[in-house]
Write a structure and sequence with these properties.
The protein has six helices and four strands. It has 155 residues and is an alpha/beta fold. The protein has a four-stranded parallel sheet with strand order 2-1-3-4, sandwiched between helices. The longest helix has 30 residues. 53% of the residues lie in helices and 13% in strands.
Length: 155
């Protein structure tokens, strides 16, 4: 299997999503399941909203190659793979349908059925939706100047 780990901020690192924290969870999972780790892809300081992450793109290119040394990619959560619903759907489809590569979120397992794929897609959707809301909230907070009504102002 291949592992993909990504951490974009210091805040995430302190919330248990550090590169080493993710690696530890994935290595333990592989040990329990008897899976051999063949390759690791690490994007540190890269946002999941963007698909142009160097290691992510290298992983996708490797998956598309004829000499691919693995048939599954493990992440701890779907949001580590992608935070954009569109990117997640497109890349998951390419990996599964064109490359024959399974994508597994070890802390958010879903069955390989239509229902399981729906649940996985919904998890990605909610992550992307939350990120979009957070971005809008931050944008809104920085674009507004607080106004104080004259009737509430104290002399």
């Amino acid at each position: 299997v291949a592992l993909y780990v990504r951490c974009s901020t210091e805040e995430q690192a302190t919330e248990g999503l550090s590169i080493e924290g993710q690696r530890s969870v994935l290595h333990a999972y592989c040990k329990v399941k008897g899976l051999e780790i063949v390759e690791e892809f690490v994007d540190e300081g890269r946002s999941g909203r963007l698909a142009g992450r160097p290691e992510f793109q290298r992983m996708i290119a490797t998956a598309k190659g004829r000499q691919r040394p693995w048939d599954a990619i493990l992440v701890i959560k779907w949001e580590r793979f992608a935070r954009s619903v569109e990117d997640a759907a497109a890349y998951k489809s390419v990996l599964r349908n064109r490359c024959g590569v399974e994508l597994v979120a070890v802390q958010q397992p879903s069955e390989d059925t239509a229902t399981g794929r729906l649940v996985g897609s919904l998890q990605v959707f909610f992550v992307g939706f939350g990120a979009a809301l957070k971005g809008l909230d931050n944008q809104h907070m920085h674009s507004r100047t607080p106004a104080v009504s004259a009737s509430f102002a104290r002399p």
